[in-house]
Specification:
The complex is a heterodimer of chains A (176) and B (589). With 176 residues, chain A is α+β, with helices and mostly antiparallel strands. Chain A folds into 2 domains: 75 residues, Alpha-Beta Plaits; 71 residues, 2-Layer Sandwich (Alpha-Beta Plaits), CATH 3.30.70. Helices cover 27% and strands 41% of the residues of chain A. In chain A, the strands form 2 sheets. In chain A, strands 5, 6, 7, 8 and 9 form a 5-stranded antiparallel sheet that branches. Chain A has a 4-stranded antiparallel sheet with strand order 2-3-1-4, covered by helices on one side. In chain A, a hairpin with a 5-residue loop joins β2 and β3. In chain B, the strands form 5 sheets. In chain B, strands 3-2-4-5-7-6 form a 6-stranded parallel sheet, sandwiched between helices. In chain B, α3 links the parallel β2 and β3. Chain B is globular. The relative contact order of chain B is 0.11. Classes of the chains: A alpha+beta (176), B alpha/beta (589). Chains A and B meet through α1, α2 and β4 of A and β6 of B. Bound molecules: thiamine diphosphate and magnesium ion. Thiamine diphosphate binds next to α19, α21 and α23 of chain B.
Chain lengths: 176, 589
C-alpha cells in the first residue's frame, strides 16, 4: 500500500474559470509532483478533461480522487487502469541530422510511426503520436544524434471501446 | 421571514443594480442578519443597504475577522448560514482566518467580498487581492462573478453549497462595476451543479454488514464528531446509543451532540480528553464512528489508536472514509437516514441476553470513570475549573450557550462544563483560532437573543479580538466575557514547562496589561474582577443579573495545568497526569 507508483487520472470538469488551478492545487498541497498534465475540450463544449499523471501510493491516489470529486466543478474523477485504456501523447522533437544521418533517422521515425513535419539544413523536426513509453524509446534512440529541442503534450487516455461500460465515464465506486 | 414573505422574495423580478440584486438574493435565502465593514470596492452594496427597502440587519463590526467569526457563531448556534461582507484587498484578506476556521470545523458560511472593477482585475490595482486564489485551499467553493446577470445564480449556488452535504465556507467575489450595472433580476428557481451532490443512495448491504459487526462486538464504543450536530441528528444518536447500550465519546466539536449527563457518555477523547474515553477506545473491539474524522488531536499516534477495533464509519463526506483510519464498513449520507436505518437493523437483536454479554464492558468503563474523573486541586490561588463549574451551576436550567477561545481555558471548559444539547458549545477545534471567542459569542447571541451566552476566554485570546466589545455595545449584545486571566499564553507555557525545560520563551503577557476592567469600561461594558473564590459567585450573579455586555477579569492561578494529557505523537491511552492527593475536587460533584 505504501509503495509509490504511477497513476493516470482522468478528471472530467465543468468548463469554468479557475477549475484548472483548483484541480492542480489539490496535488501541490499534498506534495504530489504532477508528472504530466493535459487539458482539452471534450465531446461537450461545456466540459473539459484534465488528464494527470502522478507518482504516489495507492492510498494517496484514492484520497486525491475523492478530494477531486469533492470539487464542485469536477463532474467525475477516475483513475485510468492502463490495461483497460488507450493512452497517447504527442511528441515534437527537433534532432540534429547531418546529411549522412538523415536517412537513418527517417527510417527510425517510420518504425515509430513518426512523421517528418519540417526539415532544415542541419535538423529534422519529427512528430509522433504514440503511447508515452514508445515516445520515450524514440527519444532514447534519437539522443545520439543530439536532440536540439523536444516537447510533449502530456498523455491523454480513454477507456477502450472494446470494454463495455454502462456509462462512458465510469463513476468511482466508493459506496458500500 | 414568514413563508409567504420568503416566497415573495424568491419570485421578485425587476430592473435593478447588481448591488440591489445582492440584497434581493440574500432575502431570497432568508438571510436576516449579516456582518461586515464597507470600503471602496463594496460601496455600491452598502449604498443599496441604505437606499433599498429590505429586511436584513447589517451589523458593523470593528475588524473583518470579527465579522467572519460572528457569522460563524451565529451559524453554529442557529444552524443557518452565516453571512459576512468585506471590501476588496485588506478587507477580504482579513476574512481569511474565519474562512479557514469555518472550513476545518464545517461551518456554513457565505463570505461576500467586493473586488476591483473588471477592467482593473489583474493589474495590481489599488486594494486588489486575488482573494479567490488566496482562499482556494480553504473554501468549499468560490465564485469570481463575471457578469451582473450571474450575481443571483452565484449567490443561490453559494448558499446551497455552503449549507448542504458537509457544510463549509463559500466565497463570492463581486467586482465593483458589476454591483453598479443594471439588469433584469430574477432569482433562479433551480440549481444546476452537475458536479455536486450531497445525496447518497442507500446501501442495504452496508447496513447488514454493520449490523453483523455490532452483533459480534463485545466492546463497542460510539465515537461522535461534529457531523452529528450539522446533521441535527442528536435525537437519533441518543436512540441509537441507548439501543446498543454502548459508551459514547464526543469530540471537542461534538460536545453537546450527546448529553454530557447521559450515563452512557464517557466525555471527550484525545489529547486533553478523559482517561476513561481514551481507555474505552483503546480497549474496544468496535469503533462506531459517526460524523468524526480521526483528527490527530483525537487519535494521538494513529497506529496505536483503537488497535483491536473494527471500524464502522458514518459520514456525509466520502473523502473522510479511510483517510486516516481504514473503515471496515462505510455508511455514507445523511445521518438522519443512516442512523435510524442501522438502529432498525439491530434493534431486535439487542435482547436482554445480548446486552448481558456487554455488561462486563460497561462495568469496566464505569470503573475507569470512577477512578479517573476530571478533577482539580484547590489552592491558595483561584482555580479556573471552579469558576467554570460555578457558571455552569448558575445557569443550570437556563438556555446557555458556551463559547471559548483557544488554550488551557478552552480545555478546562470542555472538561468541566456539562452540556446536554447540540449548538450550545461553540469552540474553534480544527484551526484552533485564538480570537474566536469574543466575536463568535456575539454572533451566537444575536442569533439566539434569549439565551445566556458566556465566552470563556483566555487573556491572550481576548486581546486578539476585544475590539468587538464596541460592536457588542452598539448593538446591545449582552454576552458575558469571562477572561481566565493567568497572565500567560498558558497553553504554550504548559508545553514549555513540560517539554522545553521550563524555558518560558515569549509567553508572559503580564496579567495586569491591560486592566481588563478599565478596558471594559472604556467601551461602556460592565467590568468586574474576581481574585478569590469568595468573589466568584458575586460577580457571576451580578453579570447574569445585569444582562449587558460584560467583561470579568478572573485572576487565576498561572501555574494551573490541563490534565490529563496525551503528549504530541504518543499513543492516546498513555496519558500523563499529575499526582493527586486526597483533596481533589471532582467534575460535576
Ligand atoms: C491565532 C493563534 N496564534 C497562536 C496560537 C498558538 N496558541 C495556542 S494556545 C495559545 C495561548 C493562548 O493563551 P490564552 O488566550 O491566554 O489562553 P490560556 O492558554 O492561557 O488559557 C497560543 C499562543 C493559536 N492557537 N492561534
Ligand atoms: Mg492566558
Amino acid at each position: 500500500m505504501a509503495t509509490p507508483g504511477h497513476h493516470t487520472l482522468s478528471v472530467f470538469v465543468e468548463n469554468r474559470p479557475g477549475v484548472l488551478s483548483r484541480v492542480c492545487g489539490l496535488f501541490s498541497r499534498r506534495g504530489f509532483n504532477i508528472e504530466s498534465l493535459a487539458v482539452g475540450p471534450t465531446e461537450r463544449t461545456d466540459r473539459s478533461v484534465i488528464t494527470i499523471r502522478v507518482d504516489c501510493t495507492r492510498h494517496s491516489v484514492e484520497q486525491v480522487v475523492k478530494q477531486l470529486d469533492k470539487l464542485i466543478d469536477v463532474i467525475d474523477a477516475i483513475e485510468v487502469e492502463p490495461d483497460s485504456a488507450i493512452e497517447r501523447e504527442l511528441l515534437l522533437v527537433k534532432v540534429k541530422a547531418e546529411a549522412e544521418h538523415r536517412l537513418e533517422i527517417m527510417r527510425m521515425a517510420e518504425v515509430f510511426n513518426a512523421r517528418v513535419v519540417d526539415a532544415g539544413a542541419t535538423t529534422l523536426l519529427l512528430e509522433c503520436v504514440e503511447h508515452p513509453d514508445r515516445l520515450a524509446a524514440l527519444e532514447e534512440l534519437l539522443s545520439p544524434y543530439e536532440i536540439v529541442e523536444a516537447v510533449r503534450t502530456g498523455r491523454v487516455a480513454m477507456t477502450r471501446a472494446s470494454i463495455a461500460n454502462e456509462t462512458a465515464r465510469p463513476k468511482l465506486n466508493i459506496l458500500g | 421571514m414568514s413563508d409567504s414573505a420568503l416566497d415573495q422574495a424568491r419570485k421578485r423580478t425587476g430592473r435593478m443594480t447588481g448591488a440591489e440584486a445582492i440584497i434581493r438574493s440574500l432575502e431570497a435565502e432568508d438571510v436576516t442578519i449579516c456582518w461586515g465593514i464597507p470600503g471602496g470596492a463594496i460601496l455600491p452594496l452598502y449604498d443599496a443597504f441604505m437606499r433599498c427597502d429590505h429586511s436584513i440587519q447589517h451589523v458593523l463590526v470593528r475588524h473583518e475577522q470579527g465579522a467572519g467569526h460572528m457569522a460563524q457563531g451565529y451559524a453554529r448556534a442557529t444552524g443557518k448560514v452565516g453571512v459576512c461582507i468585506a471590501t476588496s484587498g485588506p478587507g477580504a484578506t482579513n476574512l481569511v482566518t474565519p474562512i479557514a476556521d469555518a472550513f476545518l470545523d464545517s461551518t456554513p458560511l457565505v463570505a461576500i467580498t467586493g473586488q476591483v472593477p473588471t477592467h482593473l482585475i489583474g493589474t495590481d490595482a489599488f486594494q486588489e487581492a486575488d482573494i479567490t486564489g488566496i482562499v482556494m485551499p480553504i473554501v468549499k467553493h468560490s465564485f469570481l462573478v463575471q457578469t451582473v446577470e450571474d450575481i443571483p445564480r452565484a449567490l443561490h449556488e453559494a448558499f446551497h453549497i455552503a449549507s448542504t452535504g458537509r457544510p463549509g465556507p463559500v466565497l463570492v467575489d463581486i467586482p465593483k462595476d458589476l454591483q453598479q450595472a443594471e439588469f433584469d433580476f430574477a432569482y433562479p428557481a433551480t440549481i444546476e451543479l452537475p458536479g455536486y451532490s450531497a445525496e447518497f443512495p442507500e446501501v442495504p448491504a452496508s447496513i447488514a454488514a454493520a449490523a453483523t459487526m455490532i452483533a459480534q462486538s463485545k466492546r463497542p464504543v460510539i465515537y461522535v464528531g461534529g457531523g452529528v450536530i450539522n446533521a441535527e441528528a442528536s435525537e437519533d444518536l441518543i436512540l441509537f446509543a441507548e439501543t446498543l447500550q454502548a459508551p459514547v465519546t464526543t469530540t471537542l466539536l461534538a460536545k453537546g451532540a450527546f448529553p454530557d449527563s447521559h450515563p452512557l457518555s464517557v466525555q471527550m477523547p484525545g489529547m486533553h480528553g478523559s482517561k476513561y474515553a481514551n481507555w474505552t477506545i483503546h480497549r474496544s473491539d468496535l469503533l462506531i464512528t459517526i460524523g468524526a474524522r480521526f483528527d490527530d488531536r483525537v487519535t494521538g499516534k494513529l497506529d496505536a489508536f483503537a488497535p483491536g477495533a473494527k471500524v464502522i464509519h458514518f459520514d456525509i463526506d466520502p473523502a473522510e472514509i479511510s483517510k486516516n483510519r481504514r473503515a471496515d464498513v462505510t455508511l455514507l449520507g445523511d445521518l438522519k437516514r443512516t442512523l435510524p436505518a442501522l438502529r432498525e437493523a439491530v434493534v431486535e437483536t439487542r435482547n436482554a441476553e445480548r446486552l448481558a454479554d456487554q455488561r462486563d464492558w460497561l462495568t469496566d468503563v464505569q470503573g475507569w470513570r470512577e477512578e479517573n474523573p476530571f478533577r482539580y486541586m484547590k489552592g491558595e490561588k483561584l482555580k479556573p475549573q471552579y469558576i467554570i463549574e460555578q457558571f455552569d451551576r448558575a445557569l443550570k436550567g437556563k438556555d446557555a450557550i458556551w463559547v471559548t477561545g483557544v488554550g488551557q481555558h478552552q480545555m478546562w471548559a470542555a472538561q468541566f462544563l456539562s452540556i446536554d444539547g447540540p449548538r450550545r458549545w461553540l469552540t474553534s477545534g480544527g484551526l484552533g483560532t485564538m480570537g474566536f471567542g469574543v466575536p463568535a459569542a456575539i454572533g451566537a447571541q444575536q442569533g439566539c437573543p434569549d439565551a445566556y451566552v458566556v465566552n470563556f476566554d483566555g487573556d491572550g485570546c481576548f486581546q486578539m479580538t476585544s475590539q468587538e466589545l464596541a460592536t457588542a455595545i452598539c448593538y446591545d449584545v449582552p454576552v458575558i466575557h469571562a477572561v481566565m486571566n493567568n497572565g500567560w499564553l498558558g497553553m504554550v507555557r504548559q508545553w514549555q514547562e513540560l517539554f522545553h525545560d521550563e524555558r518560558f520563551s515569549e509567553t508572559n503577557l503580564f496579567g495586569t496589561i491591560p486592566d481588563f476592567v478599565k478596558l471594559a469600561e472604556a467601551y461602556g461594558c460592565l467590568g468586574l474582577r474576581a481574585e478569590t473564590e469568595a468573589e466568584v459567585d458575586a460577580v457571576i450573579e451580578q453579570a447574569i443579573a445585569e444582562r449587558r455586555p460584560t467583561v470579568i477579569d478572573f485572576r487565576i492561578d498561572h501555574d494551573e495545568k490541563v490534565y490529563p494529557m496525551v503528549p504530541a505523537g504518543a499513543a492516546s491511552h498513555e496519558m500523563i497526569d499529575q499526582v493527586w492527593d486526597n483533596d481533589w475536587v471532582e467534575e460535576g460533584v
